[in-house]
Write a structure and sequence with these properties.
The protein contains ten helices and 13 strands. The chain has 351 residues and is of the alpha+beta class. It folds into three domains: 61 residues, no CATH class; 62 residues, no CATH class; 195 residues, no CATH class. The strands form four sheets. Strands 9-8-7-10-11 form a five-stranded mixed beta sheet. A three-stranded antiparallel beta sheet has the order 1-5-6. A hairpin with a 5-residue loop joins strand 5 and strand 6. The longest helix has 35 residues.
Length: 351
């Protein structure tokens, strides 16, 4: 249903009239269900939710708050959303300490791993399937913000590749990635995937194995971001981070055929390091848990300004990790020094 809605909007051009909206798409869905018994066998509520979500996505696109809705690909964007009143349209119950059941329209009771209590005000849930072949159920609830300590204490967070998050208190936090053994296995699987023929069963097995390792790495990164953001939001009232444009920082350096890029492999490795450090995820979760308390500081010259005397000089940054002020002589390791100068500077600067 989502891809059909995207296709209807994709053919629209100036002069062709308006593309069908949500109500027209619902009428088309009703007509299609009447003429196709296999389509009528599914839940009408679930299918109507897809054009409703698409209409909301298009509204965000026209309001310039979100990007244009894209196609959903099999094996990557599989899932559906169920809405309605709990107890009438859907329901959930706990079986024991580790397992629960959710009632899905037209499918009945489906068992799932119980990780936390489902709030009573949940109005909808989404069932998704990731690339590793795992099914997930997530109940949509807006959690309460994390309350700060009320002391007015501020903290600066410097995000990096070697150290994922360096705090002005001297703490160095790093995302737990794959182990050396897991990375070696991932390289073997990627070579096997590259040699396998397209459409073969061997390629499908290798792709699933790679996806499982990638999912394990992503789960660890998300778990780290959740725990780290909760701890920071509870300990500090003001949280200052650099205002980084991560999308531009992780652009490919391949260039064009006429003007090929330079150091493409090194830039690709840096991009993987930035993506694996969870820069955007950490700040996004901090903004969700501590609304109004996260301040973004302009990133210009923060890595070149001395926290001891305030002198700005690009020559002071001798290397990625070494800093030596050309004016006062202050020296320190930007990542592993006990008092990291760049997070201290962020904590002292205003937005």
């Amino acid at each position: 249903m989502w891809n059909l809605a995207v296709e209807q909007h994709a053919w629209w051009r100036p002069g062709r009239g308006s593309a069908p909206g949500y109500l027209e798409q619902c009428r088309q869905l009703t007509a299609a269900r009447a003429g196709n018994p296999w389509l009528a066998g599914g839940s009408q509520t679930v299918r109507q939710q897809a054009p409703r979500d698409f209409a909301r996505a298009m509204a965000g696109f026209f309001a310039r708050t979100h990007g244009r809705p894209s196609w959903r690909k099999a094996g990557r964007d599989e899932g559906f959303r169920v809405t309605g009143r709990r107890g009438r349209d859907w329901d959930v119950r706990r079986l024991n300490r580790n397992w629960g059941q959710v009632k899905i329209p037209k499918a009945g009771w489906v068992r799932f791993r119980w990780s936390r209590d489902v709030p009573a005000d949940a109005r909808s849930f989404r069932v998704t399937r990731d690339r590793a072949g795992r099914w997930h159920v997530a109940f949509a609830v807006i959690p309460e913000p994390v309350q700060g300590p009320g002391t007015g204490e501020a903290v600066g967070i410097d995000r990096g590749v070697t150290v994922s998050a360096a705090l002005s208190t001297g703490e160095m936090l790093t995302v737990p990635g794959l182990s050396a053994r897991e990375r070696a296995r991932l390289r073997r699987l990627q070579r096997r995937l590259a040699r396998a023929g397209r459409g073969s069963a061997r390629r499908g097995k290798a792709r699933t194995a790679v996806a499982r390792l990638k999912a394990r790495e992503r789960d660890r990164r998300e778990d780290w971001a959740e725990k780290t953001s909760t701890g920071i939001a509870r300990r500090f009232d003001v949280i200052r981070v650099e205002d980084l444009n991560i999308r531009n920082m992780t652009r490919s350096a391949k260039g064009a055929a006429a003007q090929p890029g330079r150091n493409v492999r090194a830039k690709a490795g840096l991009n993987r390091g930035i993506s694996g450090s969870g820069w955007g995820l950490l700040v996004r979760r901090l903004e969700d848990k501590a609304p109004g308390r996260v301040e973004k500081v302009p990133a210009a010259y923060t890595s070149q300004r001395c926290s001891a005397c305030g002198h700005v000089d690009g020559r002071s940054r001798e290397s990625q990790a070494r800093f030596r002020c050309t004016a006062c002589g202050y020296a320190g390791n930007a990542d592993s020094h006990p008092v990291n100068r760049e997070p201290q500077l962020l904590a002292s600067l205003g937005a």
